[in-house]
Every structure is written in C-alpha cells, then in structure tokens.
Design a protein that fits this description.
Distance between the termini: 45 Å
Largest sheet: none
Low-confidence stretches: 84-91
Number of helices: 3
Helix content: 55-70%
Strand content: under 5%
Radius of gyration: 18 Å
C-alpha cells in the first residue's frame, strides 16, 4: 500500500515531464487501489487519490516555475490537533 503513494508521485512526475502516461505505473497504482478496497473499505483508496492530486498540484507548480512557499502560521494547529485533549490549558 505504501508503494502506491510512490507510484502516484511517479505517474504525476512522468506525466508533467513527458506529457505521456506510461501504462506500467498506472496498472500498479490501480491494482493498489483495488487491493485497498478489497474488504469493502474506501478510506485507503480515497487517501491515495488525494495524495495523487496533491502530488500533481505540487509538481505542476514546480514545473511551471512557481515558488512554493509554506508559512508556519498558515497551519497553526496541525501539530497539536491529535494531542489537544491531553494538553488542555486551565487558567
């Protein structure tokens, strides 16, 4: 399953570099999607598709010459979201 995220990157990068889709990585990616949905769950497949779209967007911006700037202030609670119930501050 972790290999599918790598193949999502490979498909996006190869498509943006050559403007062609290669069949091998696509087949591996689709088999991984089907494998993640084998027992009826869709969460893994949705995560892989979101990762593919994110890779495509970031690589498109990189290949277009845009500067990618991330500000820490834009993501204020990402590091603390999972642990927030344990870190309650009482005044």
């Amino acid at each position: 399953m972790a290999g599918n995220y790598w193949f999502a990157y490979v498909i996006a990068n190869n498509f943006l570099a050559t403007k062609k889709l290669q069949l091998g990585p696509i087949i591996i990616f689709v088999i991984g999607l089907l494998n993640s949905m084998l027992f009826g769950s869709r969460g893994g497949a949705i995560n892989m598709m979101i990762a593919f779209i994110a890779c495509l967007g970031i690589l498109y911006a990189k290949h277009s010459g845009h500067k990618l700037k991330f500000q820490l202030e834009a993501f204020p609670g990402f590091g603390w979201d999972g642990s927030s119930p344990f870190l309650q501050i009482h005044r």
